[in-house]
Amino acid sequence: MKILKFGGTSVGSPERMTKLLDIINPNEEQIVVLSAVSGTTNSLVEIANNFLAGDKKKGSECVENLYQKYKAFVIELLPEAEFQEQGNEVIDYHFKFLAGFANDIFTPIEEKIVLAQGELLSTTLYHIYLKSINVPSVLLPALDFMKTDEDNEPDVPFTTKHLTPLLEQHKDNKLFITQGYICRNSFGEVDNLRRGGSDYTASLLGAAILAEEVQIWTDIDGMHNNDPRIVKGTKPIAQLSFDEAAELAYFGAKILHPQSVFPAQKYKIPVRLLNTMEPSAAGTLITYDSEKGKIKSIAAKDGITAIRIQSSRMLLAYGFLRRVFEVFERYKTPIDMITTSEVAVSLTIDDTSHLAEIKTELETFGSVVIDENHTIVCVVGDFGADKHGFASRVFESLKHIPIRMISYGGSNYNVSLLIQGEYKTEALRSLHSRLFE
C-alpha cells in the first residue's frame, strides 16, 4: 500500500480536487491523506483567535464568511442535485458547529477542535465527490487512530493497532481517504500535529502499516537545490538521503515539514516529493541512499537570534555547558547552532518567546550579548572527513559577506553559517553561482 498526501493547494479549488484522480489510481491500494482546502486553516485560526479574545461578533462574522466560500465550493464540486445536497448537509453541520462556539466558553481545547474542521471538511467533501463519479472509497476518521502520548509525541504502535483492523474491515476496497494534521492527545481530546502536520501524518501512517512508499504531493516538482523564489535557475534534486532531507527541511526548505522525515527513516519507508501540477515530473526520492561526493542543496532559515555568553569561568571548567543548556531546557527553547571557544559559547535560537527570562538566567554565568534578525544558511551535501575542497568552496563564495558563526563537522551532511538577515539574498545567489553553475 502507498500513502499519498496532498497539500492545501492541491485541493485548493473544486477543479484541483477533481484532478486528483489524474494521480490517484483507484485500482491500487492507497491511503490518501488530505490537508484542509488552502486558506481554510488560516481562516479557522482567525476564528479561534477572535473567540479566544472574547470578540464573538467578529468570530461569528468570520465563520459566516468561510461558510459562504464553502457553499460556492460545493456548488462547483458537486453539480448533481443529490450529491450537492449531501455536500450542503456536511458544510451546514460543520459551520453550525463552529457558530455554536460563540455561545460557549472558549479555551485552547476548543481552539484545537476548531482547527480540526478544515481537514474534516476537505476529506468528507472529496469522499462525496468520489461517490458522485462512482469511484469506491472508504473515509477513515483520523481521530480513531492518530494519537500522541504524554510527551506529545505520535504513538505509532497505537496507530498500527487501531488502523489495521479498519483496513481489514474493507478488504474489498483499495482507496482510503483520511485527514492529515489532526489527532487526539493522551487525554483523548482533539489535538493536532502542528502546522504543516499533514506531511507528518503521511509519514506516520507509512511507518504504522509499513507502506511501500510515502508520496508528498505539493505545487513544486521536488526539493530544489536552492530557493527558487530568490535564485534563478534552480533544479530539483533527484535523490537525497533521509539525513540530507532532514537538514534541508529544518533549515528552510518549505516543501517538507521538518519532522516528516523521521518516522519514514526509522521504519525505512521511501518518501517521494512530487508536483500535483506536473505529475510526470520525477520529483525527489528520499531513501537511505544518496549520491556521494556532491553538494546537493542550499537552504536558509530566517528569524534567528544569536546569543553569546562570555565567562572566564568556562576556562578548564567542566559542567559549564550543561548548566547553560539547562536554561534553554527549562524554557523549552530549542538550539539551532552552537560554537565554543575557551571562554565563550555562541548559540542560536528561533523561538524568542522566553528570551528575556533566558537572558536573565544566563547573565549569572557571565556577560551576554544578543544579536537578532539573523539567517542561518545551510549547505547540504557529502561533507565527510575524507572529502577535500567542498568547505573551501563554500567559504570562498561568501568571502565578501560578514559571517557571525560557522558550524562544520557536527554531521557529514552540512555546513551552516550564520549571517545578518540583510545578506541572505546575496549569500544564496553567490553560493549558487559558485557551487552549481
Automatic annotation (TrEMBL):
Its EC number is 2.7.2.4. Gene3D superfamilies: 3.30.70.260, Acetylglutamate kinase-like. Residues 2-275 form the Aspartate/glutamate/uridylate kinase domain. PROSITE patterns: ASPARTOKINASE. GO terms for molecular function: aspartate kinase activity; ATP binding. It is an enzyme of class 2 (transferase). Keywords: Amino-acid biosynthesis, ATP-binding, Kinase, Nucleotide-binding, Transferase. GO terms for biological process: homoserine biosynthetic process; lysine biosynthetic process via diaminopimelate; threonine biosynthetic process. GO terms for cellular component: cytosol. Residues 377-434 form the Aspartokinase ACT domain. Pfam families: AA_kinase, ACT_9. ATP binds at residues 5-8, 218-219, 229. Pathway: Amino-acid biosynthesis; L-methionine biosynthesis via de novo pathway; L-homoserine from L-aspartate: step 1/3; Amino-acid biosynthesis; L-lysine biosynthesis via DAP pathway; (S)-tetrahydrodipicolinate from L-aspartate: step 1/4; Amino-acid biosynthesis; L-threonine biosynthesis; L-threonine from L-aspartate: step 1/5. Belongs to the aspartokinase family. This is Aspartokinase. It comes from Pedobacter rhizosphaerae.
